[in-house]
Design goal:
The complex is a heterodimer.
Chain A lengths: L1 H7 L4 E6 L7 H14 L4 E5 L7 H4 L10 H5 L5 H4 L1 E2 L6 E4 L12 H14 L2 E5 L6 H8 L3 E6 L3 H16 L2 H4 L7 E9 L1 H5 L6 H8 L3 E6 L2 H9 L10 H13 L16 H9 L1
Parallel strand pairs in A: 1-5, 1-6, 2-4, 2-5, 6-7, 7-8
Antiparallel strand pairs in A: 3-4
Chain B lengths: L1 H28 L8 H14 L9 E6 L6 E6 L9
Antiparallel strand pairs in B: 1-2
The chains are: A alpha/beta, B alpha+beta.
Chain lengths: 282, 87
Amino acid sequence: MSKDLKLEEPLGRVIVVTSGKGGVGKTTTSAAVGAELARRGHKTVVIDFDVGLRNLDMIMGCERRVVFDFINVIQGDAKLKQALIRDRRLETLSVLPTSQTRDKDALTREGVEKVLDELRQEFDYIICDSPAGIERGAQMAMHFADEAIVVTNPEVSSVRDSDRVLGLLNSITERAGRTGAEPVKAQVLITRHDKSRIDSGEMMTVEDVLEVLAVPLLGIIPESTAVLRASNLGVPVVLDDPSAAGAAYEDAVGRLIGEQIEMRIAADPRRGLLQRLFRRAV
Amino acid sequence: MFGFSLRPRKASASTAKERLQILLAHERSGSGGARPDCLPQLQRDILEVIRRHMQIGDEAIDIRMERGDELSSLEINIEFPGKLGVN
């Protein structure tokens, strides 16, 4: 499947995972989407654009193996090949970590373009984990994107900030500036979805969010205890024990690569107190 | 029964704490968080020393690191071109 695609489209797709507001699950999403694409056999690399506050390496469990990073490559101190960390669980998955430098100008547009061009030759998918916000770092992460996953919680400030990010995708990206280019394909991924709070009217519904943002829906990730567990262990949530969140990410990735998958709102079964006590003992 | 039943719950949190402690110990040992980039310098120095004796390209060196709580290792692989002395 991926080989057939490669014949038509020799270059890898650059997908930015972005959001206006922080803490909505960009890094969790980048790790899960990257791992699921790799698990399906696509050569995938996940890049950390959050210079200064790097966390992708920790979430993906390769923090102890970082020698060189994205900034070293851009500054010419290391080759791209040396900075890429091959995942131990999936041979089709790589991570390009970033550094904690305080130098705000460490990511140059020319440098980022050069690295992405090189990665496009080798990988089917290049997932860019953006920093939060709309400042320079976030703009750099989205600049060369072909597609965007806008991560949003069903919460007013998160949706509002996502709208600003969608505006930026339509105005400042390379595709936005190039005449004749298709615009960046943006899709929204709703995370921390809590069905019981929506049913009780405490939380905006998926329809509410989509009505406001007016972009297609990529998936709905339910609030799940599996997400914290996965980040504790440094295992992308799709590779950890089966969970509602993991299954929802698998569906979202299917849609990302063009499969028709019905939108379903999964949830881990709610357990009673007694059941919970017994489950813990298992 | 209570203590036993809680144990699996604690497993991932203690792993998280351990991973953080190892990572932060490394980061704090550098000059105030941001570790000076000594590795690229080290790579250049190693290449320079070897180049005094034979011709090797920039691509020929591979440096990998593994950080542990007790022990960290640095693995350096250098590909020599063809037969030694030739080229």
